[in-house]
Amino acid sequence: MLGGLFNTFLKLTNPTPRFTSERCLLTRYAVGGCSKCQDVCPHNAIDLSGNTVTISEVNCTGCGLCTQVCPSGALEFDIESTMHAIHKQQGREATLACSQLSTPHPTLKCLARVTPASLVAAGAWDKEVTLLHGDCASCPVGGPDVLRHLMDVVDMADQYREATGRPLKLTLQQGQNTSKENKGAIVSRRGIMGSLMGTAKQVVADLIPEQPLPFIDWSDPKERIPSDWIWRKKAMKPSPAPETEVFWVTPAVNDECNFCPVCMNVCPTEAIKREITPEGDFRIMLDVSSCTGCGACIPSCPQEAMFEQTHRPFHTLSEIVVLKEQARGPNWFEEPLEEEGTSTGQEDL
């Protein structure tokens, strides 16, 4: 029995998020890099040496703070289980609770696991969401920064929902913590044996079950898009009118662009493409739904030609748009090296 409980516990509480290196700004060598995940981690579980992300399974508590701040979706937990936990609650109200609380409500290991997509979806279902948190200042799972970052997520979800005419309805309140003896029972694998002898059985019963995330098939363009961004778009219901300006952060390009490939190379979802037609015309294209708004292209642009655009027409979320184009003409590759009328010295040969 203990062995079965141990295996179930490990399966449900495997703490580390999935890391997709192709989406990481550090791995993409974006100018300025990125260390947000390491900076926010309360347990020093993230190592960025070698231009990649390595997560310690020993130190990671699975709080989710790193996934909240990752600008490109390189770090992810399963979000559909959380969305299902909101949707299946009867009536107009839905509650999610922190795992450190004594509550009958569906429980997340930490409220830092709440993402914009889950709240945008709650608004689409017209749910009034209550998020119950514990004493974050002394919490061994997430720590004191959880509420600040959670409010950033709430503010972002509010912006996504604004154009739908159905605003997010959310209450954030503190619940009753578990006893000191039980507190931290699901923190990490460091204390797993002690947890199993104590309250782990109840923890396993109360936690929202997570689906293991499969490996990304990078050859499939659809899989390059992080699931949270996929659901942010899907959950923008009721659908705004096509020309309505909606919150969706993307880059824009000014006249300084010289069509170099840097923005394309650093884009973590390969949403930016450069096209050169047989006629010599240049275009910078953006697959809007694939863009996470991470901003890696902006500081990386050597011409400083890119800038952030926070809103765009709703219909463009399903389109590939032209950021910049320039017609060079059919003879662009055959232009003479010397200006017209200038001697090349060939006349004397």
Care to describe what's here?
By secondary structure, this protein is of the alpha/beta class. The chain folds into two domains: 2-206, no CATH class; 240-333, Alpha-Beta Plaits. It has helices spanning 2-13, 36-40, 65-69, 80-87, 116-124, 146-162, 192-197, 200-206, 227-234, 262-266, 297-300, and strands at 18-19, 46-47, 54-55, 75-76, 93-98, 107-108, 128-133, 169-174, 245-253, 272-276, 282-287, 306-313, 320-326. The strands form five sheets. The protein has a four-stranded parallel β-sheet. It has a three-stranded antiparallel β-sheet with strand order 10-11-13. Helix 4 (80-87) runs parallel beside helix 5 (116-124) and helix 5 crosses helix 6. The N and C termini lie far apart (96 Å). Residues 1-11, 180-205, 329-333 and 340-349 have low confidence and may be disordered.
Summarize this structure briefly.
The chain is α/β, with parallel strands linked by helices. The protein has helices at 2-13, 36-40, 65-69, 80-87, 116-124, 146-162, 192-197, 200-206, 227-234, 262-266, 297-300, and strands at residues 18-19, 46-47, 54-55, 75-76, 93-98, 107-108, 128-133, 169-174, 245-253, 272-276, 282-287, 306-313, 320-326. The protein folds into two domains: 2-206, no CATH class; 240-333, 2-Layer Sandwich (Alpha-Beta Plaits).
